[in-house]
Amino acid sequence: MKLILFEDAVAFCDRTQPYLLRYPAEHNLLLGIQSALVRVPEAFTTSPDLFLVESAGEIQAVGMRTPPYNLVLSKVQNLSAVEIIVDYFQQAETALAGINSFIREAQAFSQAWQSHTGQSSTLKMHLRIHQLTQVHRPMSVQGYLRKATRRDRKQLLEWSEAFSLETFGALETDIERILDLQIKRQDLYVWCDRKQVSMVVGRVSQPGGGRIGPVYTPPDCRRRGYATACVAAVSQMLLDRGAQRCCLFTDITNPTSNHIYQTIGYEAVCDWYDYRFA
User: Fold this and answer.
1) Are 135 and 246 spatial neighbours (Cβ–Cβ below 8 Å)?
2) Which SS3 state, helix, strand or coil, does residue 215 take?
3) Rounded Cα distance, 187 and 18, in Å
4) Closest CA to 176 of 197, 195, 198, 150
5) 260 backbone dihedrals φ, ψ, rounded to 5°
6) In this structure, are residues 114 and 144 in contact, taking their beta carbons and an 8 Å threshold?
7) Measured over all CA atoms, what is the biggest interatomic distance in the chain, rounded to whole angstroms?
8) Which of 51, 40, 109, 36 is CA-nearest to residue 79?
9) Are 189 and 234 in contact (CB under 8 A)?
10) Using the 8-state DSSP alphabet, how is residue 220 labeled?
């Protein structure tokens, strides 16, 4: 069993995409990162770590890290691959912020990382991946959907910062730069009811699939159906553009978001852990 590194994103995608597409909904984040690395390399300010672990020519695991974000790990066929990945990052003397993966894989990696480095881990978020293949139209909601523009930037920057603080407890890196890219790529949408009342990011980000998120509605506009209508409209738009499915993550501790997405057709696929290292 050996770890193979890639410097070229196209070659990495060509080699690993068939493996990831065995479970397209489960791997929607990794497929989305792959797509972004190829389509919008300017979105990344540092060189990513792109690798696979194979045995006898068969892929056992696929991983990628786009600093300063966590390592993201695919389904792992043989958990011995986790030890090889941990060895690589330890020998490279690379500081890892954490691991994002399925429960089995995330737990195995966190335990191996602590064993090798002495660093403990904390479960930061317990997430759930959902998939939609057909939109169930929500009840009529006042307002309409439109693409965000540069004129919305000030408002949407405030919302992006509020989302980051509310979800992660801290401001994410490069919020302004990411927002500008989302507006430029026309991936960001707002629901309007006399004013902007909700926002959602949505894009076709993999062969046959679209991704939704983040979604944010300011507190004074919540419980009016705006987010539900916004996500439903963008999901339908992605399906109309050829996506066979749309995927999104929810925090399982937030019953409101889990419920509203289920009402428009999203179904739970699997759970996902976000561990942070000390």
Assistant:
1) no
2) strand
3) 26
4) 150
5) -65, -35
6) no
7) 61
8) 109
9) yes
10) G
